[in-house]
Q: What sequence folds into this?
């Protein structure tokens, strides 16, 4: 008897096993959907099967096809192989399509998976750090998986294949099947009907909670990817009306446990040749409430049916499938196998690998992530494992999915040329410095701390000389004027001179100071919190607004809890991706020390570039140009009414169907721009809409390339994290100095300012939109009031301040629950104005 473990490629998880014994051929599971075509370095599943069965063309006849359970890394490419007649099974044993998706046994298929994300939540969670595109493809595949599975079963039945739906050991069809394959010793060992039903009920309850969660999440402007990450990564969810069952679920291990525990467990071979194939059964930790007794009984039954010459470790050798107690139940087994993709550091689990390595009884194992395709030969009680790469019994765990080096660790030393020492770095990580801040002949010494278990690590260092932001003392600065010589009200400009000088140079700083003073405004130079607020209060007489100069690592933003204490006690922090904590500059508008902002506040980031900061100081106000442009999510119709409040003529794109390819150069001739789209805290280079197929990229940095100019434009975004100018969201920052500023190349907001925008107004946290009813709550009133004030002549910073005042007057905009009040408070506090704003 030969048991072939097929190479399941790079994607995490995955099972596909071919058994050849006594002229019988059994295929168990189908790896991943993408394995139908394979990938670089990994043959497709069809190609591997043809090679093993020595049949280069025509349908591959199978004595038996087994589908252990309804997870995508087991269903995989089976539907496509059936559809294209790559395989032609005579008999099929499949997981019941109703129980496997949490539906009542024998019930009609219903539209339970009407939410795109729901099906993906039933799957094993993806590893952290994967790209948004990868996650979106996973969501789309999962959404169609059940329909493809049902179509596969129907196709097989139409072609005359005998289809046995597994519903428990008591089903007479199981006895008939075992009798049919008696010559190879096939035994179906479980699970019981009671275990299948309990798991189906658990899936159904999870689905009900998840449907409620997803519906509530859609009130926030998060795309499918953000919703998926929220409900699987353990991050706070953006919904404030989550049922307790979902919040409890977020904290528990094993999101796919109920499906795993429906896995069909079989043995093949007779006597000393018997082998155990376990699917994803979680023998070590069932992680399904009330399943403990059934799981214990199943393990007892499996042990009694042994002993086994070879065992496939369940669930890709996860912690919840195999541990010391389980191993102790199989004292006579020395050979083991693991099926899993190259990615996914937890499968096999490092603890399982150590358990095998440290066993007092020497054990031998193979694993597809290290050995590729391997074959287990079992004959006369002897086992031989043949591998195609690597070494047998490799105990090394996979590298983590993402290796993150702390900035201060990554760059540890700056070697300066001979001469006077530089000014103090003020305790900031050197990695935050731009090339323009260091002498031309400075040397960077880079040190990386690498986990000892990793065999190979590639470190790429890109060093690009920064010439954009350099300003020499010889440059003609006399031609620069604050506001391009417009008459501005008296403003109070605020910065930390030492920190800003280090980032933009002395010449750039001195030019900015001259522009401000000659423009009739005041520059407050202060270091330290107490001195800063004292100087603000002493200099605020007659001032109409405050303009901060510099990134958060020059003048820190406040890590601001938006909820009053009594409301904080009534709302779960986990119900918002920012935990209701955002970055805020409004404290710099507090001129009387009462903790409330009395003046509008805007911020000009520095981007470590004098040219960038000086360009923002000279921004024009071209509101008289009667052109407007907008792009909105197709699911945010309230934005239509807001757009009508913008003056002039122009177009609103709706995404989908419109995407970034529909954005023309001429659209950015507009001087009033409005974006009501999805945003991301990890990617500031693009915004998304949505359609039935998922996320639609509506606008990105490529739309702002070339000769685009935004002189004097005012931009308002209702996008999640649309005005986030650092990598860290506030709730994840250890303190207000622990930030990594974004650059023009990583931020739409900063790119608009570089192109000459007067103001960019948006959120530092996740945004929320009204989805039903009057559509005049959550974000809508801020949007509407801002453009109304702007049309009446208010400067952008002033218009935002007035919009917030109006918002306070009308709170809570008809909302009645504590979670809805929490959203209203967050909307009020998280909008900020970037750029000169006056």
A:
């Amino acid at each position: 008897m030969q048991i072939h473990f097929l190479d399941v490629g790079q994607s995490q998880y995955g099972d596909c096993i071919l058994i050849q014994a006594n002229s019988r051929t059994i295929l168990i599971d189908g790896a991943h959907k993408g394995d139908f075509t394979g990938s670089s370095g990994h043959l497709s599943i069809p190609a591997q099967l043809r090679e093993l069965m020595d049949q280069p063309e025509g349908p591959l006849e199978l004595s038996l096809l087994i589908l252990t359970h309804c997870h995508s890394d087991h269903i995989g490419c089976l539907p496509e192989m059936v559809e294209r007649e790559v395989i032609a099974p005579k008999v099929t044993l499949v997981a019941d399509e109703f129980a496997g998706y949490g539906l009542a046994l024998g019930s009609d298929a219903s539209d339970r998976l009407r939410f795109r994300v729901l099906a993906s939540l039933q799957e094993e969670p993806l590893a952290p750090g994967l790209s948004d595109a990868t996650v979106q493809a996973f969501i789309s595949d999962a959404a169609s998986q059940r329909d493809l599975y049902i179509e596969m079963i129907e196709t097989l039945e139409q072609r005359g294949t005998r289809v046995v739906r597994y519903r428990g050991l008591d089903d007479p069809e199981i006895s008939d099947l075992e009798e049919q394959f008696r010559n190879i010793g096939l035994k179906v060992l479980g699970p019981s009907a009671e275990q299948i039903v309990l798991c189906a009920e658990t899936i159904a309850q999870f689905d009900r909670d998840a449907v409620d969660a997803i519906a509530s999440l859609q009130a926030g402007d998060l795309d499918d990817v953000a919703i998926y990450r929220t409900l699987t990564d353990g991050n706070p969810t953006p919904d404030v009306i989550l049922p307790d069952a979902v919040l409890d679920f977020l904290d528990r291990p094993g999101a796919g446990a109920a499906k795993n525990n429906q896995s069909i467990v079989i043995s093949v071979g007779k006597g000393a040749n018997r082998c155990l194939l376990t699917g994803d059964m979680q023998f070590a930790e069932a992680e399904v409430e009330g399943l403990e007794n059934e799981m214990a009984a199943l393990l007892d039954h499996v042990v009694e049916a042994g002993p086994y010459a070879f065992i496939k470790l369940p669930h890709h050798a996860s912690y919840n499938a195999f541990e010391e107690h389980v191993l102790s139940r199989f004292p006579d087994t020395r050979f083991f196998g693991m099926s899993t993709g190259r990615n996914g550091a937890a499968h096999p689990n490092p603890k399982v690998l150590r358990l095998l390595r440290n066993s007092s009884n020497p054990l031998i194992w193979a694993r597809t992530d290290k050995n590729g395709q391997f074959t287990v030969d079992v004959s006369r009680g002897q086992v031989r494992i043949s591998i195609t790469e690597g070494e047998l019994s490799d105990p090394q765990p996979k590298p983590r999915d993402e290796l993150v080096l702390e900035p201060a660790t990554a760059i540890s030393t700056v070697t300066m040329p001979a001469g006077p020492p530089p000014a103090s770095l003020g305790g900031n990580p050197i990695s935050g410095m731009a090339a323009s801040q260091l002498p031309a002949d400075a040397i960077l010494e880079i040190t990386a701390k690498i986990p000892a278990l990793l065999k190979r690590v590639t470190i790429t260092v890109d060093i690009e000389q920064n010439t954009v932001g350099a300003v020499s003392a010889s440059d003609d600065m006399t031609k620069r004027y604050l506001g391009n010589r417009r008459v501005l009200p008296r403003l109070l400009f605020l910065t930390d001179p030492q920190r800003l000088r280090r980032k933009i140079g002395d010449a750039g700083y001195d030019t900015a100071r001259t522009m401000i003073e000659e423009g009739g405004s005041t520059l407050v130079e202060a270091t330290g919190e107490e001195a800063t607020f004292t100087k603000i209060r002493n200099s605020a007489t007659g001032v109409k607004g405050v303009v901060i100069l510099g990134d958060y690592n020059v003048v820190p933003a406040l890590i601001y809890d938006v909820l009053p204490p009594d409301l904080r006690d009534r709302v779960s922090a986990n119900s918002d991706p920012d935990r209701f904590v955002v970055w805020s500059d409004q404290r710099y508008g507090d001129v009387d020390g009462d903790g409330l902002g009395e003046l509008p506040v805007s911020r000009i980031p520095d981007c470590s570039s004098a040219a960038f900061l000086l360009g923002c100081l000279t921004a024009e106000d071209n509101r008289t140009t009667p052109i407007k442009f907008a792009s909105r999510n197709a699911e945010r119709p309230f934005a239509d009414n807001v757009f009508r409040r913008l003056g002039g003529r122009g177009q609103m794109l709706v995404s989908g169907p419109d995407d970034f390819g529909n954005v023309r150069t001429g659209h950015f001739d507009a001087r009033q721009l409005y974006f009501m789209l999805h945003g991301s805290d990890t990617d500031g280079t693009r915004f998304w809409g949505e359609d039935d197929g998922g996320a639609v990229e509506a606008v990105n940095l490529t739309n702002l390339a070339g000769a685009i100019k935004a002189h004097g434009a005012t931009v308002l975004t209702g996008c999640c994290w649309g005005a986030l100018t650092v990598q860290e969201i506030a709730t994840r920052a250890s303190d207000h100095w622990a930030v990594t500023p974004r650059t023009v190349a990583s931020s739409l907001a900063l790119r608009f300012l570089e192109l000459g925008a007067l103001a960019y107004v948006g959120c530092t946290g996740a945004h929320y939109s009204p989805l039903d009813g009057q559509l005049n709550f959550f974000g809508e009133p801020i949007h509407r009031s801002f453009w109304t004030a702007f049309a009446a002549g208010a400067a952008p910073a002033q218009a935002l301040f007035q919009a917030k005042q109006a918002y306070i007057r009308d709170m809570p905009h008809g909302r009645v629950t504590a979670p809805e009040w929490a959203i209203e408070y967050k909307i009020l506090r998280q909008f900020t104005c970037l750029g000169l704003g006056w």
Observations:
- The first strand starts at residue 2 and ends at 5.
- Residues 104-114, 235-243, 401-445, 449-478 have pLDDT under 50 and may be disordered.
- DSSP finds 24 helices and 30 strands in the chain.
- The first helix runs from residue 45 to 53.
